[in-house]
Write a structure and sequence with these properties.
Two copies of one chain form a homodimer. The first copy, chain A, is built from 20 helices and 20 strands. By secondary structure, chain A is an alpha/beta fold. In chain A, strand 2 and strand 3 form a beta hairpin. In chain A, helix 14 packs across helix 15 and helix 15 packs across helix 17. The termini of chain A are far apart. Strand 17 of chain A pairs antiparallel with strand 17 of chain B, so a sheet runs across the interface.
Chain lengths: ~550, ~550
Amino acid sequence: MCKYVIGVDYGTDSVRSVVVNASTGAELGAAVFPYPRWKKGYFCDPNTNQFRQHPLDYIEGLESSICEALDNAGEEVASQVVGIAVDTTGSTPVAVDQSGTPLALLYPHLENPNAMFVLWKDHTAIKEAEEINTLSNQWHIDYTQYVGGIYSSEWFWAKILHVIRIDPHVRSDAYSWVEHCDWIPFLLTGGTDVSKMYRSRCAAGHKAMWHSDFGGLPSNEFLATIDPLLDGLRDRLYRDTFTSDVPVGSLSLDWAKRLGLSTDVVVSVGAFDAHMGAVGGQIEPYYLSKVMGTSTCDMLVAPADTFGDILVKGICGQVDGSVIPGMIGLEAGQSAFGDVYAWFRQLLAWPLEQILGANAEIDEDTRTKLVAQTKDQILVKLSTDAGEIDPLESGIVAMDWLNGRRTPDANQALKGALIGLNLSSDAPKIFRALVEATCFGARKIVDRFQDEGVPIRGIIGLGGVAQKSPFTMQILADVLDRPIKIARSEQTCALGAAMFAATAAGLYNDVMEAMQAMGPGFDVTYRPKADQVEKYHQIYARYEQLATLVEQTEQSS
Amino acid sequence: MCKYVIGVDYGTDSVRSVVVNASTGAELGAAVFPYPRWKKGYFCDPNTNQFRQHPLDYIEGLESSICEALDNAGEEVASQVVGIAVDTTGSTPVAVDQSGTPLALLYPHLENPNAMFVLWKDHTAIKEAEEINTLSNQWHIDYTQYVGGIYSSEWFWAKILHVIRIDPHVRSDAYSWVEHCDWIPFLLTGGTDVSKMYRSRCAAGHKAMWHSDFGGLPSNEFLATIDPLLDGLRDRLYRDTFTSDVPVGSLSLDWAKRLGLSTDVVVSVGAFDAHMGAVGGQIEPYYLSKVMGTSTCDMLVAPADTFGDILVKGICGQVDGSVIPGMIGLEAGQSAFGDVYAWFRQLLAWPLEQILGANAEIDEDTRTKLVAQTKDQILVKLSTDAGEIDPLESGIVAMDWLNGRRTPDANQALKGALIGLNLSSDAPKIFRALVEATCFGARKIVDRFQDEGVPIRGIIGLGGVAQKSPFTMQILADVLDRPIKIARSEQTCALGAAMFAATAAGLYNDVMEAMQAMGPGFDVTYRPKADQVEKYHQIYARYEQLATLVEQTEQSS
């Protein structure tokens, strides 16, 4: 009799659940649930880069997407589900009370953005991140040494400090803080005491400066020196952390009912999407597994016993077991990748939405349809047209920092740029320059790993852009001068979660075994073209020069 | 009995003729003729900035626009026309044979772009301009001293040298070279010997380094040192130059017939559009008269007897009599102004034209109409929306050099740029930054005049952008921190030509008198707003910083 597992992948805009055959990895059913409040733009302010998500979006999405995926998987499947694992974006912390309930679920915080999950791409805590970095540089222990030497405004402590500084109500009602990936397993297993919540090694190590060398989180003395408002919080957080092959417990009666599953279903420790995605995409030692979506997360694993004492500067961190237990998981990434292309599409769609969409001469249904049809084709047609442009033709060089820079060397204050524009700079030329810039940003990361003594033996491409844009992938192969293997599955994050679910449920000895049995294999491989490689070598020099200049202007502004 | 004069204004895309009452300046009839070959993009290559115009476009436009303007003016008018004057863009030189006929009118050059007029905005001669500058810096006479110290690729000698270098056929068949504004009066008066052609003081002084101090054009020794290909050409060009109050002659029998006019009609010496436009816009001493269209031409006049020996660096030149006889005419300008906005409109129109325009689900008439309607509204809607954005809100700073930089300090190799982009940078924000950049470019020119000891007592706005964009004019007033008077007439160039025609025909003692009698007066005045002035002071500092950086990256690329 077959056994099934469920992988739940919380992305930026929606949550996706997949029901998978635990022996083969074959997908039986899947469902996506877009967050309804998020979709309406609630609780966000793009002008100040405030991005918050309501816990109800997550709860509704959990129930809906799992139930629908099970429906799609067919009868008989639900009764044979043995495990569920969850991945989420991160760092996405929320303030909770002593029972582990996010404050936004409790009166009077129901509509208070500061009582909601602070999404990874929220950049309201730039100042707090700077203060953490300043103190770290002077402290006798460098708590940033395992997170690349720079603490980011996208991370746990900076976000907590920002929120409790500006919101006295959240400050007084927050007993503790939890990551999204820790809260969902806690919710599913009916947790009622936050001190017993299983905390993800991945989230803690990459975002909260947790490390066994430090005896856990940074000392209370360090935290209270950053700001007395943090004094005492450490004791209300956690000391131990867990890898995702560890079971948290089994489904609560309530959730078993809601999902139509048994209370025997094992729920395992959560982790971040890219980390589980790397597993779903069959990462190997010293392969860079790039999840390329709105942003990128670049994961690399190296056996812990031979890695030595290398500390890679300017990345998002290196954590024992964050991807695969027993291996150092190294994380890097770009703050905007597909988001750069989406930004340009949105820019070009302005006349469609603002003028054509308001043209009273045509009926509303027709214009809505025309706007949507045309907008849908923008990136397709841009890719086709830009594909015919020689890299050296336009002279346009872009900077990909439209959402700041995550790595190498986090700096969320940086901005995007376009130089070399002239009157013949049309949309395909600019688009090509933007795509090239995102690929140059990717090269910066590869170069950094290698410069710091971590060899890169291969590149694996995962995520929406890897799957959907051969145009981008070919440029990436040319810029990196390396072949890029594209994972066959489109849902590597959810599939990776399913592999952990199967392992935690006891079907495999470890996740490596699960990966081998359930892995989807690879689809196309993009190979670098020698003539383009040579051209991009030249343009990359211009990109690096521009990067230096743009960084200078930001610093002096 | 009333007397009438005709002003003919050759612009970049079309020629416009106006029939004017010579006593009052009242416009009786006007007509515009778009150049048919140019409109189809013939002989041009925007990728290499090659822009050529066929002499037939000019000839057909001359006849058609004058005849139609006379028709519109009503019966009885043609018989009382006493003068015609012509202004053109420039420097717009063409190779001619000994009879003064442009080579493109002669077999085998009929379709050879190098035998056509090289339009002002053609930037194919960047290398040649550099060579001229290099030699000028070392020569015992600085021939560039009256053209701002930098010779531009948009000008006479650079363009000639470029064409004769790359095209041996034109090289061997070109007896001499003439400016568009010299050729039209020559054509109208039936000239047959290029050595007798009246050459415009304005064109010669601003673009060909002609100056009475040099005894005319630069020496043959200098020219032959730039390139032996130029050896001997000086003697086949000209020694004397003339201001536009001077009659060239009267209409030839042929042209009198073609236009339905008398052979008594006086044709006066031509000049450049912005110079005649400044007269049509009633320029005063030490007022900056800004013709703001696709690019800008900024004219200033100062009485020759009190101007002293000031040499303004980095402008397009200072020439005795180029605008008004007896006054030094100083010219500066920006290579792209309205063209920057048009570029952005074209960029945003890409999905309309490329996707919606090809949508086979809707009939062709409907989609053509929708594309045109929507595109027409882009700049209107952008201006409205951008008008509501605080200057300090977006953080975007643009460089306006999308067509290179004309002044201060000509450098056609420079490019445009946008920095400070983030994921919330939408079309109105970027548009506002682009408009601000063009206004900052305008401030650079005002600052240069003042820094060099030439006071600016007022600003007069002329041209399409001045007439049609209150949004841009208000930002310009705020950036310059000065009021801007907008000339009442939309056709100040043609009107200025008509004033010269009336003067050359003997109706006035000098053009100052004509200006007073025929001047249209002023329309609205835009006044700076104190709060905006303060904000733009800050942003201008960022613009200057960016300018330095962009110039550095160009130099090192």
